[in-house]
Write a sequence for this structure.
């Protein structure tokens, strides 16, 4: 049903599994001496990735979420990053690892990193499934990247078009005619 709307698959289910294993292992190694790091997911896009990644991190971590949006269902960023729901814990003195589905213009991550540092976080790093460096407006390099992708509008595995397709188990490109409907 959903697959008929997809032009092509960019990152397969198996590739996503392998990415989560690789990044989970790396994060476990890098954070093994850190006291209870916080894995902070930016809703809604982070959900499938954060869930699969967290299972590959073999450490005591806390899990938090913030609901942040700038695309508001469109295919281009409004540039206006809104916090719809804040996290529940104080970040002062804490080590934060932000989990993202994608870093594109960099506006979302830039806004949130500045906010967390302003609140006194000890360290802030980013793990993202997808990195789209060609989309960058604000220079930023995530510490942990699943895969670098070209400048195309992608969806699935958390990423939406008009709030739909988040439940695809892979990342793909939507057929042109779907946008025009
Ligand atoms: C998407 C995605 C990232 C952000 C990346 O969120 O989940 O948070 O855009 O884009 P940027 O680098 O250009 O800022 P969106 O605003 O679509 O909200 P959602 O996660 O609820 O879909």
């Amino acid at each position: 049903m959903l697959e008929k709307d997809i032009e092509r698959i960019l990152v397969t289910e198996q590739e996503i599994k392998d990415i989560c294993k690789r990044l989970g292992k790396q994060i476990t190694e890098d954070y093994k001496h850190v006291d209870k790091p916080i894995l902070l997911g930016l809703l809604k896009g982070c959900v499938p990735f954060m869930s699969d990644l967290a299972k590959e991190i073999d450490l005591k971590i806390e899990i938090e979420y913030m609901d942040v949006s700038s695309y508001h269902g469109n295919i281009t960023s409004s540039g206006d990053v809104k916090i719809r729901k804040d996290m529940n814990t104080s970040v002062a003195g804490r080590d934060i690892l932000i989990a993202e589905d994608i870093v594109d213009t960099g506006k979302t991550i830039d806004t949130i990193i500045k906010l967390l540092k302003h609140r006194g976080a000890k360290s802030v790093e980013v793990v993202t499934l997808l990195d789209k460096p060609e989309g960058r407006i604000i220079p930023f390099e995530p510490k942990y990247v699943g895969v670098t992708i070209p400048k195309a509008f992608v969806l699935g595995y958390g990423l939406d078009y008009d709030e739909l397709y988040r439940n695809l188990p892979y990342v793909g490109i939507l057929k042109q005619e779907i946008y025009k409907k």
About this structure: Residues 42-45, 68-71, 77, 100-109, 160 surround PRP (CB under 6 Å).
